[in-house]
Structure formats: structure tokens, C-alpha cells
TrEMBL record, chains A, B:
The active site is at 246 (proton donor). Pathway: Amino-acid biosynthesis; L-methionine biosynthesis via salvage pathway; L-methionine from S-methyl-5-thio-alpha-D-ribose 1-phosphate: step 1/6. SUPFAM superfamilies: NagB/RpiA/CoA transferase-like. It comes from Vanessa tameamea. GO terms for molecular function: S-methyl-5-thioribose-1-phosphate isomerase activity. This is Methylthioribose-1-phosphate isomerase. GO terms for biological process: L-methionine salvage from methylthioadenosine. Its EC number is 5.3.1.23. Belongs to the eIF-2B alpha/beta/delta subunits family. MtnA subfamily. It comes from the Eukaryota. Keywords: Amino-acid biosynthesis, Cytoplasm, Isomerase, Methionine biosynthesis, Nucleus. InterPro entries: IF-2B-related, IF-M1Pi, IF_2B-like_C, Initiation_fac_2B_a/b/d, M1Pi_N, NagB/RpiA_transferase-like.
Length: 351, 351
């Protein structure tokens, strides 16, 4: 079964400490909002969907323990705590959207005289719990559609060799994963021959996290260096590339981990289909194209050091954009929980 | 002036210990063939031209100290010592070729009755010393031709932004460098705005060695991760790519450090000219095309560890080809010491 990065049952939350991966597998208890803020801020949990869910679940843990009878005070506290949670990683948009939704719900429940304080608590907790379930369901739907669309291109019942980039698995979502979910589905369908994952410099999410998940689940897999993608496509007959997305613009241009654009170019050169797998919440129809997406630049130290160990010449300056934009023209299909759409038909899928 | 990786005057040889770079700059005295073997075998010196020159210079140091009067014994010793030196890095072809040349010279001098033992020593030492001079001269010619060809494409006296991969500088040659020699020439001509160098995973020659040379010589430069090349070409207006070569086939297909092929593909996509800079000795007209070049695969540990520090998930398997083949169709020009040739015209340049 999938690696569990988030272990939750009502009143109990534990998360896998991603800072210790891949060398140690240790879960941390999250006993309330303060713990939630800490694990998000310290990056013990990462990946936009996972951050949103862990933050909200930490609130659910706290709401359950609360015995306040005044809904107005509760509403006020919930709003304050959600804003506090959002502040742990201010650039992660998913937790902000989830917080806004919960604040709206709290407002309307608070205003409704037929709702008791206990009902109020129960409804909020259920709403949060449903986020966890929905994220996994959406990922499984993405996995199913992605698996189907990749297999549809094949003749007979041959097996596929897939390449992925960065980490889009159980460790970045509530579970299962987006691009890695597609790979899980292919494996479950017994049609996956092999998956290749890139190291994903400079933060090494591929080598540390994706490789960890693949080894954990005994999926036949091989790690390559980011610059080996072309050599790999030349040497082995790669069936498809599947990557995740940080954000998809209305025209299909996709912002994702640095290096994605390069993989899309070399996939086109080798006639390998290139898929983006992401939940609907990653599609931002307010952005006409990828040009409007601001590229975050990260500290030099991520490139010059591994832990405390310096790996680059002292004095060299660095350029460290954390993601790049893959133009829609290089994307074969965008896999969402409703199906697979060519970039040009994305508007048909998004309400 | 260029970084001195090899310091030589008659009777005295020191090499820069590349294992300590970029954190420490320390020279090692090489007092004879045994020291020469050690620095080559331990990779304190690397780069095919540099290995050949350091090996032969270590022999020159030893010949000078020798006071034998029997040319036949000397001839025999020299052959033995050269074969011993070649054994330090058996795959480096340049030192084998240089050794063969010296053995031929020793044979003919030994057979010539007009040559005294002292003449014999002097001729061999001079021949070795001339290798050092010739390598630097060839590199400077490569630099000059490369600089001219890149500037010729520009309008007016604008400045260039160049990208390079791996290390092809003073640290890989007798001095000056091939691709990095072209960059040095552009800088000397005051036409270089900026050079970008890739990290060059998994052995990080770009981050450790090229960055070290560029900082040392105050050439305006920035380090990028291998997967950032496309984002860089999109964001900054790159004038040209210049890389080195391990071997060039008769049709222009070029074997070079892993990742070169990928850079050539994305350069084509962005309409950026792509140059290979290499001495004539790297061109192998006996190979019809790159298909005939065997790709060396290196140990997993190079990918999974940085020093003693594990950076990849335990249990993951790795694919670690040390170079790839860039097809001639992606190469704008091959820069050798005789000029710049399109891959299809290489046969005109090579005798």
C-alpha cells in the first residue's frame, strides 16, 4: 500500500518527518495548531496539498478538545488559528484557500440559530476530515485517468517505462499522489515495467523522497541525474513523462519544479508524450498564460551546500529559480480528476 | 592570468591538488614517475590532456636526475616507466598516445650511433617539455578561433553571454583550456558580459572546478543547476553554448560529459548556437559515427553520496553513464586549433 505520510483518526494526528527522510522514518505527533504550525514552518511536511491538509487537521484536533459553548467565541478563535496556520508558509496557496473555505463555513454556522455549539464543532471537523478523503479520491481519479490515457497509446498489452520529476507522491499530498499516483495506478494494473525518477536538484526531492516512496512500495525504479534525461530517452524506449504542477494557467502553460521545461523539450525531441497531472485546484483560470506567473528565486545556499558540506567553489554567484514554465505547446495532456484534457480544451473542464 | 594547475620548470614539477578544490588550494611536488603515477591514479590531476602531460613531465624530472651512460638501459627503463604511468588511468587515451610517441623517439635515438647518452636525455626532456607548450598553444588557438566565430554572429560590438558545461579549463589541460579557453579569449577581448556554468552532476566538475577557475580569474559568472539550462535560455538572451569533447567521430557526433546532449537539444529549441571546442587529438576519424562510442557507466555511489554523506534513498538503483553522444545535427561548429568547422566539413580539417 501507499506510504502513509499523514496518519489521522479522529483526535489523533501524526505526520512522517520529511526532514529525516530518506535516512530515518519517524512520525511526529501533532497535538494542535501550534504543532501544526511548527511542522509546516520547519518543512517536516511539504507539498502544497499536504500542507493544507495537515494545517486543517491540526485545527480539527484542537476543536475536538474544545468545550466552549459560545459559538461566537469559537468562530473568532477558529479564524485566528487559521490565519496563524497560513502564516507558517505564506506562499503556499492551497492552505490559504482551505482556510478561507473553513472561515466561511464557520461564519454561516455561527449565524445559524439552529446549530448548537456541538453541531458547530462536528460540522467543522467533518468538513476538514472530508478534505483528507477528497484529496485521496481526487488523486486516485487522476491516477486512473492517467493510467488509461497512457495505456491507450500502446499496442497490445505491452508494458510501459515512465519518467517522472520531483516528488508528487504520498509525501506531497494527502496520500497516493498526482504524477506518482498515475505511476501507482500503472503499477497496480501490472502494466508498469519501470519508472525512472530524476534527482531533482538542488533540493533533491526525487533522490530523497520519490526514490524513498518507490523503494518503500517495491515499484521497479531507477534514479537518474537531471541531465541524463536525454541520454535515457535515447537509450531506453520511454513510453511517457508524467510530472506534477504547482499551477496551470488557463491556456495550459504549467509552472512546476525547475527542470520540468527542459524535460518537456527533450521529450518533444524524442517524440515521447508529456503529461501534467494535477488536481483542479491547481488550475488558475484567472491567469491567461504562464507569462503571468512570478518565478520564485531561492537562496544560493540550496545550491552551494548539502547540509553543512560546501559543494561549490566559494565566491561563485548562483541563480536559483525554484520552478519554470512549460509552454502548453509541449504538453500532450493535462490529467485532472475529471479526465485528461489537451491544454487547449482545459476551459471545457474547469467550471 | 590563467590558474596554474601544472607548475613546471626544468627539474621541478608541482600540480594543484584537485581533490582539495574548491575548498583548499594546495600544490603537490611531483619528484618522479612514482609520484606521477600516484597523482594520476588518485585523481589529484584529471582531464585527459592534463593526465598525459603530468605523467610525461614526471618522467622528464626523473630522466634529468639519471646519470646512466648506457642508452640501451635508459631506453628500456623509459619504456617500462611509461607503461607504468599509463596503467594509472588505463582508459585515458591521451597518455597512451603520448607514451607511444616517446617510446618511438627513444627507440630511434637509442639506435642512432651519433646520439650520446646526454643528447638522448636532452632530446627526450625537450620533447616532453614541448608537449606542455604545444597544448597551451593549441588551446590558445582554439580560444582565438572560438572567440572570432562567436563574435562574428553579433551585430556591432555588443557583449556575449555564454553557457558552458563541466570543466574544460586550466584544470583539465596544460593550461588555458578548450571551451573555457574560448571563454577566456572572449573575456580578454572585453566582449564577455557573463558566463553561466552548470553544476555538472554527479561529480560536480562545474560547481567545484569551473566555478573555482572563474572566481579565481574574476570572470563575471553564475552557477546554475543542470536542469536550469532551458529556464536560463528563456530568461536571459544566451549568445552561444561552448562545451568540450571527450571524443569526436568522423561525422561530427561528439561524446562529452553526461548532459551535453540535453543542452544541445534545448539550445536548438531556443535557436542558440552550440559549439564543441577540442584539440585535433580528440577527433577520431576511425569512428564513422557516435554509435560506435562505448558509454562508460560509473558506480552508483557517485550519485547517492556526497563525500560520506548519503543523499539518495537507501535501496534505490541508479543509472550513471558518464557521458552521452551529441549528434552532429545539433552542433553548429567544432572549434579546433586550425579553425572552426561544421561537423560535415571535419574531414577537410583532419589529415
Amino acid at each position: 500500500m501507499s506510504l502513509e505520510s499523514i496518519r489521522y483518526e479522529r483526535g489523533r494526528l501524526e505526520i512522517l518527518d520529511q526532514l529525516l527522510l530518506p535516512l530515518q522514518t519517524r512520525y511526529i505527533k501533532v497535538q494542535g495548531v501550534e504543532d501544526g504550525w511548527k511542522v509546516i514552518n520547519k518543512m517536516q511536511v511539504r507539498g502544497a496539498p499536504a500542507i493544507a491538509i495537515v494545517g486543517c487537521l491540526s485545527l480539527a484536533i484542537e476543536i475536538l478538545k474544545d468545550d466552549c459553548v459560545d459559538k461566537k467565541i469559537m468562530r473568532q478563535e477558529i479564524e485566528g488559528k487559521l490565519n496563524y496556520l497560513v502564516s507558517a508558509r505564506p506562499t503556499a496557496v492551497n492552505i490559504k484557500l482551505a482556510a478561507d473555505e473553513l472561515i466561511n463555513l464557520a461564519n454561516s454556522l455561527s449565524a445559524d440559530e439552529n446549530v448548537t455549539a456541538d453541531d458547530f464543532r462536528e460540522r467543522l471537523i467533518r468538513n476538514i476530515e472530508s478534505m483528507l478523503i477528497k484529496d485521496i479520491e481526487d488523486n486516485k481519479a487522476i491516477g486512473k485517468f492517467g493510467c488509461e490515457t497512457i495505456l491507450k497509446r500502446l499496442e497490445g498489452d505491452s508494458h510501459v517505462r515512465v519518467l517522472t520529476h520531483c516528488n508528487t507522491g504520498s509525501l506531497a499530498t494527502a496520500g497516493y499522489g498526482t504524477a506518482l499516483g498515475v505511476i501507482r495506478s500503472l503499477h497496480a494494473a501490472k502494466r508498469l515495467e519501470h519508472v525512472y525518477c530524476t534527482e531533482t536538484r538542488p533540493y533533491n526531492q526525487g533522490a530523497r523522497l520519490t526514490a524513498y516512496e518507490l523503494v518503500h512500495e517495491k515499484i521497479p525504479s531507477t534514479l537518474i541525474i537531471d541531465s541524463m534525461v536525454s541520454a535515457l530517452m535515447h537509450a531506453r524506449n520511454i513510453t511517457a513523462v508524467v510530472v506534477g504542477a504547482d499551477r496551470v494557467a488557463a491556456n495550459g502553460d504549467t509552472a512546476n519544479k525547475i527542470g520540468t521545461y527542459q524535460i518537456a523539450i527533450v521529450a518533444k525531441y524524442h517524440n515521447v508524450p508529456f503529461y501534467v497531472a494535477a488536481p483542479l485546484t491547481s488550475i488558475d483560470m484567472s491567469l491567461k498564460s504562464g507569462d503571468r506567473i512570478k518565478i520564485e528565486e531561492r537562496p544560493d545556499r540550496e545550491m552551494t551546500h548539502i547540509g553543512e558540506h560546501r559543494i561549490a567553489a566559494p565566491g561563485i554567484s548562483c541563480w536559483n529559480p525554484s520552478f519554470d514554465i512549460t509552454p502548453a505547446s509541449l504538453i500532450t495532456g493535462i490529467i485532472i480528476e475529471k479526465g485528461v484534457f489537451s491544454p487547449g480544451k482545459l476551459h471545457e473542464a474547469v467550471p
